[in-house]
Amino acid sequence: MRLIVCGAFGRLGAAVCKLAAETDGTQIVAATYNQKKEHTDFPIYREVSRIIEPSDVVISCVPPTAAAEMLAILEYCATRRIPLVLCTTGMPAQVEAAIEKATKSVAVLRSANMSLGINLLSRLLRRISPLLHGTGFDIEIIEKHHNQKIDAPSGTAILLADSINAAMDNRMQYTYNRSDTHVKRNRDEIGIHALRGGTIVGEHTAVFAGRDEVIELTHIATSREVFAVGALKAAQFLQTKTHGLYTMDDVIGDTL
How many angstroms separate the CA atoms of 213 and 100, rounded? Predict the structure, then answer.
């Protein structure tokens, strides 16, 4: 599998490059980054449009603030019919529109979290939430991340909340802040809480609080390698797809 990695030396991009180098049958043929790096086994470009090396899949790890770069990546992949794995959340509306357009001609996989464990947790929550909520359990989500993370709540927390909500006919309401109102909790709400501090890679807990008992389901990422593993699994999955929009749920369903 020949890969192009965009944003190759950010936190996630570096983890993808490291894991790809250790994986048999996988080769990075080119990468993009806004600064020159020495001692790489592949060429580095500032602009994706300049890449000439043939590839099977593109993995994009560029930040959501790089809208122009993301648009260029989408155009590059759509024009050349190269599948694209998007490891970025919180993208602006113009990029969202470009993604939808690109999926008509090329396969695109995107997820709020590339971790296989998180996506397995998402599946589990879809199965158990209606049962627990229907027997009187309240539902809250707590997420923790490092002190450099800008967005809150995390895209993963929303992914988990959306999984729960979808299983309950989308009747649940999301509550992010209770300091502005002084009312009792609504039964049909999901409280979502964000903590920021230190170097926490990522921790997400779904709390089901019932009468005299509490059930907690927690996923803890101790390194970014878990996201890189998912990104490579997604790339392998996309190799056989010609067009359309996919998620990590499709990858899990294809492999388990």
Answer: 44
Starting at the edge strand found earlier in the chain, the sheet holding 27-32 runs 44-45, 27-32, 2-6, 57-60, 84-86, 107-110, 244-246
Tokens (6 digits) for 12: 């996630």
Q: Tell me the mean pLDDT in the region 121-144.
A: 96
Which 8-state DSSP code applies to residue 50? G
Looking at residue 36, what is its pLDDT?
64
Which among 231, 186, 226, 228 is positioned nearest to 203, based on CA atoms? Answer: 226
Domains of the chain, first to last: 2-110+224-255 (3.40.50.720), 116-221 (3.30.360.10)
How far from 24 is each of 18, 20, 28, 232, CA to CA, in Å? 12, 8, 12, 12
Query: Would you say 57 and 85 are in contact if contact means Cβ atoms under 8 Å apart?
Result: yes
DSSP letter at 82? -
Reported as a single tens digit per residue, the pLDDT across 13-52 is 999 999 999 999 999 999 998 776 667 889 999 999 999 9
pTM of the model: 0.84
Query: Is the model's pLDDT at 115 over the cut of 80?
Result: yes
Question: What's the mean pLDDT in 120-130?
Answer: 95
Query: Quick one: tokens of 83?
Result: 């599948």
Q: What is the pLDDT of residue 177?
A: 87
Active site residues: 145, 149
